[in-house]
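Quick bug: Pentapeptide repeat-containing protein output formatted oddly.
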Amino acid sequence: MRRVGLSRPPETARYRSPRQIARQVPVAGHDSGSGRPVVEPGAPRRVRIGGMLWSVPGASPPDERLRVMPWWLVLVGLLLAALLGWWVLHWLLGEADSATAPDTRATLRIDAIRTGLTVVAGTGGGLALLLAARRQWISERAQRHQEVVAAADQAHRDRVQAHTEAVAEAGQRHQERQAETAAHDAAERRLTELYTRAVELLGNDNAAVRLGGLHALERLGQDNPAQRTTIVGVLCAYLRMPSPDDDARETEVRRSAQRVLTRHLRADGDAYWPGMRLDLTGARLDDFDAAGCTLDDADLTGATCTGTTRFTGATVTGRLALGARFDTLVLDEVAGDATIVLDDARVTGGLSADGAEIGGRLSCRRATLGETSWRGATFRRTVTFDHTTVTGSASFRDAVFHGGLSMEHTTFGGEAGFRRARFADMALFRWTEFGADASFADARFAGAASFGRARFHGPVSFEGVTLARRPLFDQARATTSGTHTWPDGTHVERLDTDWLLLTDP
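Here's what came back:
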């Protein structure tokens, strides 16, 4: 009966030292027929040393496995040499014995012995040379193996060094990030504490303490640009809070808050805070002075502004909402492309916007204005004064309207002056009430002009006017008590003792 057991694979049946053999595993693949590794020229290979695999770029193809020479092969070689020498000696002695002469036979026998020994010595020398060649080949193979192992070891050391450096660099970066995070957290905590303390001071019952809170917030915003929007919001909220009318100390605190806001809205130094937006809806302001400020979206809708509110020389962008109550409003030399909204505004004193350069729309619907002046103002876009009441005089002398002008249902309680005004587009004065003198002398109308159903309660002058087309006066009326100068071609007839009727031909 044959015993059946587990057989060990030939690759693992014999222990081989890492110094004796390096098993190289190519990365290219295996031959489909024999299953042996296929090594492509120049392909990187992995070398197994001990129990680990090492990647050796450009390693030489794997050598054949070195087999240990058995000791009996040496004995077989010596035996073969002796047999060869014996056979040669035997043959030569046989040839020598065939000689007839005794002297010749003796000489031949000596030569035969000498020749046999020479053959034995030559054969032994050949075996010795073969063993020496094998020893040299083994030495060269070991040298090549040592070089491969040294290259793998150097590559491993390089990788270990690179990994160590990468780990150290990552650790350093991590420590730096932790330090930055800690510093940022500390700064944020300190900033929060300062902000909280300043707000608490602003809410104190003592006016002097509130003033200190204002200046603390101002300093905090000056030193921390990221907090400026929040601080401006807090100051605006403070101004929106109701306050007693007869508290002089609170009035001074509010004036200080206004000065803090406007001081940082002037683009004339390091104190400028760009990009700030003012939300002063419903606020109570006293002598608010934003002259020379740069305003992005300022909203004063519903605010009560006592004293004189100044925007002289301000640069406005976005939207400037002024639908509030003003004692006096000054917009002289205002410039910018902002949309200015005066809808439902109440100006009991005067409104002055002389020399203003308004690049956006101007809307002044349903407003009530005292004496108003727009001398030399330039309007780049549409201007609307529909349903607005001007209780005092209104002057648009030398004003330039690049867009359309609408003053429908507008009431002028005093003189309305448009002398040397320029209208580049349509100008509508329909249903407009002119309570006193109305002057369009030397004005220039490049577009259509309509005064349909307007009422002129005082003298009207169109002297020197330049018209691109005949204006419309459809059913307009003028008082009979004044002296009027109408454009050429205007049809005027007496309606009754008080009114003249103007019609279009």
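Actually, after a second look the formatting is fine. The first helix runs from residue 72 to 97. Closing.
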